[in-house]
Structure formats: C-alpha cells, structure tokens
Amino acid sequence: MDKKKLLTSLISLRFFFALRVYASHLKPFMEGNSKVYDWLYENILSIPFGVSFFYILSGFVLSYSYRDKILQGTKKRSDFYIDRLIRIYPLHIITFLLVIPISAEFYYMGNIVGWITKLFSQVTLLQSFVPIESVYFSYNSPSWSLSNALFFYAIFPFAIFVFNKFRFRKYVYLFTVLFFIILPFLMVRVNQEYQQWMFYINPLFRSIDFILGIILFSIYEKIKHLKLRTAMYSLIEIGSILLFVGYIAAKEFVPEAIRESYGNWLPLSIIILAFSYEKGILSSKVLNKKVFVLLGNISFGIFIFHGVILKYFKVANNYFAITDPLIIVVITFTLTIVFSFLSAKYLERPLGKKIKKDINRLYEKYRIVNINV
C-alpha cells in the first residue's frame, strides 16, 4: 500500500470538514444578516459532524501509520506519545496564550475555584473531562477537542492490541449492543442538562468515534485487495456522499442527542472508507489537486486558529460594527487561512523538530549519566 497515495484524498477531505467547523462558529456574526447562511445553518451546519469526522479519521490514519509498528515492537509507546504530544500541545499553548488578553474568564476571579479549574484544565488539556460548559468551552473553545485527542492517543497503543484480536462478527455484536441497548438506555437516563457533555464532549464516550476509526482500518485491510473498475470506485465515492446528504436531509427525524453522537458514525465511516482507495473520479481527479492537499495539510491550524480569529474579530467589531456577511467571511476566513499556513510552515514543523531534538538530547544525557553511575 502506498502511504502517500492513500492519504492524499483523506488529507484533502480534512479541509472541507474543518471548513464546516469554522462556518458553524460564524453563527453569532451571521445569524439574521444572511438568509443564505441561516438556511445553511438550519439545514447543514447545525449538525455537528465535523469533529466526528476528525476523530474517526484519526483512528484510521494512526492505525495505518503506527499499528503494525507498535504490534511488532518496532515503535515504542513512549516515542508514539512524544510524537503525538508534540503534534498538538505546542500549538494549543500558543493559541491559549493568544486568547488570554481578550478572555473575560481570565480576568474575572469572582469564583477562585472555577478560575483555577479553567486555567489548570486548559494548561493540562483536561478540560473535556469537566462536565461544566463554562470550563470545557473556556478560552479558545475548539481546544476541547484536543483534550479528547490527547486521551485517544493515550489509549491507542492498548486499543490496537485489543481490537487486533477481534473478528468481524465481534464488531457486529459489539456495535449492535452499543447502538440498540447501551446508548438508548443512557440517553433516557442522563439528565438533559448533562447530555451535551455526556454525548458530545465526554472523552470516554467520544473515544468510540476514535476506536471506530481503528476498526475501520481493520476492515480496510481485509478488503483492500478487491479489484473493481474505476467506474465502480467512482459510484462508491458518489454513493457515500449521497448517503451522507440523505442523513443530513433526514435530520428532523433524528433526535438531537443522536445527531451529536452516534448518528454520524455510519455515514462518515463510509465516506472515509470509500475515499481511502483513491481510485474513483472524485479522489483521483479532484481531491488530489495540490490546492486541496495544501489546505488539508493546514486543516489542524484552521481548526484551532479560527476560534482565536473569531474572538479577536468580535472585539474589533465592537468598534467597526461590520454586518455585511461577505465582508465578515472574507476577513475571518482569509486571516484563518493565512495564520494556519504560516503556523504549519514556520511554527508547527520547526518547533516540533526542535522539541524532539531537545528531548533526544536530554535522553542521551540522562542515559550517559546512568551508565557512568
């Protein structure tokens, strides 16, 4: 399997789902000012499928990149943890520091316990474990998803050992019980006040999305040798999109708690699986274009920087009072793309390399000291 070829269309897809996250957070600025946006939000953006896509894709891609290495012992768990921590933590801290000057929660210390909780949970990336909205959405609110990602990385080496032994039949049994017994029971029993945290934020629950990605890769491994015509791969890709469109169109018939949780699992998994082969017309002729791959490569920056940009725009707009939807989109989206591109090129990669180099240097120094002792 060609790693570069496999990842190209999936990398490009990341941009479109990051775009959905950005667009949904425009609501405070756009609502009532644009009939087009109001329609988009009502019919598409109100369904929170962006984060689910990234969680499932993360399980899939990490399984491709690390599963065999960890199972065979050629990749140490400590090295894996360092790689993933370097990937998300430095940028999280940078964006956290960037929003502090305009964050009311940083200056208001009326509840000192709450203030310390918010600050501590942000620095340690534990905010999604706290079932209080003012905590998990504090400061740069999209960072709650990074808190979950860090938890997923922690369980990944153990999860692949467990699910590597599962046969397809066990997956069917597991998700049948989960879909039709456990989750419906929880949705009835959990208080309405905590449902958003329980089914949308909670890292324990959202780890199912991530584990689904691990399972999805196992399925991919079993059927990747199927040889189909290009037209058939194209039909599968188009069909996966139509299925997803149908799911969105049927949102009125799907309870909100399900839309925010396991309702997304099946259509998103089918999209990821359909495009992972990169043999259909959409993946091989559209998503492999350099512009989409570039945008996909900076999608992490888009995801984490757009919250900072929108916070600063809100402060600036108290003076400029911009209400034109097009101008709002042009300003905020352009700044998000520019910051994300600059971050990927001049911050994330160089800083990641430097941190890893420093860690290796410290490791060598520590090892030498132990030998001398």
3D architecture notes:
The chain has 19 helices and no strands. α1 (3-24) packs parallel to α18 (299-320). The chain starts with a helix and ends with a helix. Mean pLDDT is 84; it is low at 368-373. The protein has 373 residues and is mostly helical. The relative contact order is 0.14.
Structure in a nutshell:
The protein has helices spanning 3-24, 27-30, 35-45, 50-72, 77-99, 104-107, 112-124, 133-136, 144-163, 168-189, 195-201, 203-223, 230-249, 256-259, 265-276, 281-285, 290-297, 299-320, 325-372.
Structural features:
mainly alpha, globular
Mind sketching the topology for me?
Layout: H1 3-24, H2 27-30, H3 35-45, H4 50-72, H5 77-99, H6 104-107, H7 112-124, H8 133-136, H9 144-163, H10 168-189, H11 195-201, H12 203-223, H13 230-249, H14 256-259, H15 265-276, H16 281-285, H17 290-297, H18 299-320, H19 325-372
Helix pairs in contact: 1-4, 1-17, 1-18, 4-9, 4-12, 4-15, 5-9, 5-18, 5-19, 9-12, 12-15, 13-15, 18-19
